[in-house]
Amino acid sequence: MNGSIGAAPSAADFDALARSAFARIPEPFSRHLDGITVQVEEFADEETLEALGMDDAWELTGLYQGRPMDEETVWSAGELPSRITLYRQPLLAEWCETGVSLEALVTHVVIHEVGHHFGLSDAQMHALEGQAH
């Protein structure tokens, strides 16, 4: 950092970082990402937090919503597309608190949420994240 304080990265900036993270996901995973949408919201809403058993919106930086690939069947057709939501304010707070680059934080969350799409374990997600850098 150069010491000057500018405007916080916008939702469009987060979207660009997420798309960049998607572009670095290696094969064979990358060929199964079509149709996953990304949206950026300021915070998770109360309904989402309640469904996850969470009280503090600052604790949730991202969320995968959809059916994991290992649970898909022919009867899944017609469902809404899978979606990853990034929560901008908690990510900004983590960026400020940790000093980790915003690109690295967004990539971490995207990879973690993509991992849910594939039904991966945390260890498998960590390995995928290592390949995407």
TrEMBL record:
It comes from the Bacteria. It holds the Pfam family Zincin_1. Gene3D superfamilies: 3.30.2010.20. InterPro entries: Zincin_1 (IPR010428), Zincin_1_sf (IPR038555). SUPFAM superfamilies: Metalloproteases ('zincins'), catalytic domain. This is Neutral zinc metallopeptidase. The lineage of its organism: Bacteria, Pseudomonadati, Pseudomonadota, Alphaproteobacteria, Sphingomonadales.
